[in-house]
Design brief:
single chain, 168 residues, alpha+beta, Ubiquitin-like (UB roll), DNA polymerase, domain 1, 2 domains, six-stranded mixed sheet, 16% strand
């Protein structure tokens, strides 16, 4: 049996008190339960690294990690984050580039950069859960991420560089 979140209704009946960990920091917000995580991140918290594109969970530009697992933040309501840990691309700015970011830089796997945060977070989430994934497993992890600029050559080189396969 899973534990049900405990919400506190504020004096405004249309808002909820939602508490979660955002990039390692406990965060409490008073928001309408109908708000999407992506909108709260970008509008209320000025975390614009998470992008909005298709708004229906098909492009991957808005991927964040929730309890270490990639999620499309455009499909996640803020109340669903109660008691969870949310990690955005902004959390990576305080450290030297991780191996995913470094591979994107070395392989020239970005152009406009709009899709890059979602791809980095999707791959980071996979690597959180599987230390040495194969090329095909990593390709599958990016199946929901679209890039309209690069033609995927650089992105595929990133997967080759990060994979446990010996692919030439």
């Amino acid at each position: 049996m899973t534990k049900q979140p405990q919400f506190t209704v504020t004096d405004k009946p249309e808002t909820l008190n939602v508490t979660f960990h955002l990039n390692g920091n406990e965060t409490t917000l008073y928001v309408a339960p109908s708000r999407r995580l992506v909108d709260v991140l970008r509008t209320d918290l000025a975390m614009t690294g998470t992008k909005i594109s298709c708004e229906i969970g098909r492009c991957g530009a808005c991927i964040v990690l929730v309890d270490g697992v990639p999620h499309n933040s455009c499909l996640l309501m803020i109340y669903q984050c109660e008691g969870k840990s949310v990690e955005t691309i902004e959390n990576l700015q305080h450290e030297k580039p991780n191996r995913v970011q470094q591979a994107f830089l070395e392989e020239g796997a970005l152009q406009c950069g709009y899709c890059t945060p979602g791809m980095v977070m999707a791959l980071k989430g996979m690597l959180n859960n599987k230390e040495n994934p194969t090329y095909n497993e990593m390709k599958e992890a990016l199946a929901g991420n679209l890039c309209r600029c690069t033609g995927y050559g650089g992105i595929l080189r990133v997967l080759r560089k990060l994979s446990s396969d010996d692919i030439d």
